[in-house]
Automatic annotation (TrEMBL):
Organism: Actinocrispum wychmicini
Family from the record: Belongs to the 'phage' integrase family.
Protein name listed in UniProt: Site-specific recombinase XerD
Domain Tyr recombinase: 124-294
Gene3D superfamilies (UniProt xref): Intergrase catalytic core (1.10.443.10)
Keywords: DNA recombination, DNA-binding
Amino acid sequence: MPTPRRSESTQGRKSLHMTSDASTWDNGKLITEYQRYKRDEWPREKTRRTRRFQLGRVAKDLPSLITASEDDLLRWRDRLRGSAETTAQYVSVISGLYYWMVVIRKLRDDNPAQVLKRPKVPVRLPRPMLPRHYELALACALSEPELYIWLGLMGCSGLRCCEIAWAKTHEVEERDDGGGIARIEGKGGKVRAIPIGQMLMLTMRPFLLGRGSLFTRPDGHPWKPDQVSKRVNNFLRGIGLSETAHTMRHRFGTDYHALDADLFRQAKVMGHASVHTTQLYTEVDPIEAARYVESLTVRRLKLHRQPGWIQSEEVRGRSA
């Protein structure tokens, strides 16, 4: 019979060793100092706000993070509700907090978060916007130059909503052939070089004359990422499409891969740290795959004579 885990009252307090000032660290102080430590890794306000919300929820469920035991964290993990992806994010956040607490600040000598296991997150399938829907969206946006450019940047260059919102005029350079290169800071504060086609650059030229943000709202202030996403999604719903802005980035990933099978180069173009992420944006064309399978079948089976039990349509017709 397995030995039951000791309860909090008998287990944690004897084996828990903290520094002399650790008892003065309440949840508020811990979270504030941890966020200060992670400031460079969380350069964007949206990221900091999300992590602050997640840490706040953890602190609400665990009133004393500094003294929490393995049992406390396991019970907290059992109370989590939501998708496997959401649970994995919370486990990652609290694991990072205790790593900082133990390894960096040395507030305690044990890491209770080591008992937490990240759930297996199902692999997401690519969700590219249908080609005819993308063409419809572009056609319907012709009367709105800014929106038309956004759709073009999403579906033809793979830009995210946040990258469109954060783009500056000085970050877009025109090439000798009429195309362009945008060196835009994206997720995680990483800068990547994004090619822009000649036809889209021609449309963008009036927007490149000013300084500061490439795209601004009617009140002169720059767009925020969620505002770009909301505007595009509302536009798509208004013309009868159920897809979202992000599906155009999936459309770009799929179309680009059909022209260039180098996943490493595509990952660089799309701003992915791993080609595994790029694969989530790349849908395999079943018609193209069928041609490869047919070619392979002919190549393999033509080396053999047809077995006697395989009859032609003509033979089967006569026997019927």
